[in-house]
Amino acid sequence: MISVSEKSIVVLISGNGSNLQALIDAQSQRLFNGKIKAVISNKPNVYGLERAEMANIDAVCVDHTEFNDKAGFEAELVKTIDAYQPDLVILAGFMRILSSDLVQHYLGKIINIHPSLLPKYKGLHTHRQVLENGDKEHGTSVHFVTAELDGGPIIAQRRVKVDENDTEQTLVEKIQQQEHQLYPEVVAWFCAEKLTFKLSEDSAAARAVFDGKVL
């Protein structure tokens, strides 16, 4: 049996980092064959950076407000990420829309978690939209990142029931509970080389592939 080498991981955050903590906990329990080398935030003094420091992980801030334009910020971000030579870049509450050039640089090894059952409710305020539309179920999706906002190939989803007395806050709690289980699981698939990203022959479409089967 061919052994799989440990994967180098970089996590991008913008805030509290609850999904980051789930990943740190999973790493400490050796639930995936990878090591988080750095946590990078575009905002200073967020709690997610403290979580990284407490876990002896490099905590780095690339403050987007210190740059004159998006291109300058992303150039520094790429330089910072690439210093760790990551096999996988994980977006965990990273609240900046990435350019197609940056996404292309990491295509096939950058993933995101989004609090909706994609393709429904791309972008922000997903819980509010679920309640306003009277949906009976809600959920979370992990997907490969492509240039289309929240539009990359879906890897896995978890669903929750929406109750009559649910609020945005109760939905946040329900969804996060599912996210904290799902994200480490998907990372484990990637680190085990069971999960891959595949472009079609004409490069017009992308797919997530698990154990040789298109998801």
Structural classification: alpha/beta
Distance between the termini: 25 Å
- Helical content stands at 25-40%
What integer value in Å does the Rg equal? 17 Å
CATH class: Alpha Beta
CATH-defined fold name? Rossmann fold
Reported CATH architecture: 3-Layer(aba) Sandwich
Average residue pLDDT: 95
Indicate how many domains the architecture comprises.
1
> Beta-sheet strand percentage?
25-35%
Question: Which sequence of strands runs across the widest sheet?
Answer: 3-2-1-4-5-6-7
Indicate the overall shape: globular
Helix and strand succession?
A: EHEHEHEHEHEEHEEE
Number of DSSP strands? 10
Low-confidence stretches: none
Number of helices: 6
Largest sheet, in brief, is:
7 strands, mixed
CATH superfamily: Formyl transferase, N-terminal domain
Topology (SSEs and partners):
Elements: E1 7-13, H1 18-28, E2 34-41, H2 47-54, E3 58-61, H3 70-82, E4 88-91, H4 100-105, E5 110-114, H5 126-132, E6 137-144, E7 154-161, H6 168-191, E8 195-199, E9 206-210, E10 213-214
Helix pairs in contact: 1-6
What's the short version?
Helices cover 32% and strands 26% of the residues. It is of the alpha/beta class and 215 residues long.
Task: Provide structural commentary.
With 215 residues, the protein is of the alpha/beta class. The chain has a single domain (7-214), classed as Formyl transferase, N-terminal domain (Rossmann fold), CATH 3.40.50. 32% of the residues lie in helices and 26% in strands. The protein has six helices and ten strands. The strands form two sheets. Strands 3-2-1-4-5-6-7 form a seven-stranded mixed beta sheet, sandwiched between helices. Helix 1 runs parallel beside helix 6 (168-191).
